[in-house]
Design brief:
four-stranded antiparallel β-sheet; Alpha-Beta Plaits; 2 domains; 8 strands; alpha+beta; single chain; 183 residues
Length: 183
Amino acid sequence: MDRDPAIGVLELNSIARGIICTDVMAKAAPVNVALSQTICPGKYLVMITGDEDPVRESMDVGRHYAGNYLVDDILIPNIHEQVVPAVSAVQELAGLDSVGIIETFSVAGTILAADAACKAAGIRLIEVRLANGLGGKAYLTMSGELPDVEAAIAAGVAVLEPAMLVRQEIIPAPHSDMESILT
């Protein structure tokens, strides 16, 4: 599977400046714009993918143009292959084992937690939901064998600043209706 090995994310508190940042970031280096959209509550999210050096260069330009409108940013050089599709809500879910949920106050933190969870254990990300319709919160859902979900939750929570974590939950044996609810 071809994939971009690095991801960069800017979260801004100005929609207009977010659109400008998307343009200058796309022009700064050969990167792919994975997301450029409004998020709740009135913020803007830009996500780029590509090789590490171009992503780093593009992020530097984006941070510069964001200026005081920058809320948060992250760069993950070796993003796990499940994260970007889960953010785009295009993950296939073939059955449901135990379910894990991490809810945060931070879009960037949720992406970091998703990456750490995937790298820590053999889980499948179901979705990474970023702030839309959530009052600025974000969350991720995952499925796998119970010990893997427990390890993934622990790893995801460990990368978060304590004030950014809202809640973590595990459903050891979800009801069969949960698959259609979570996808």
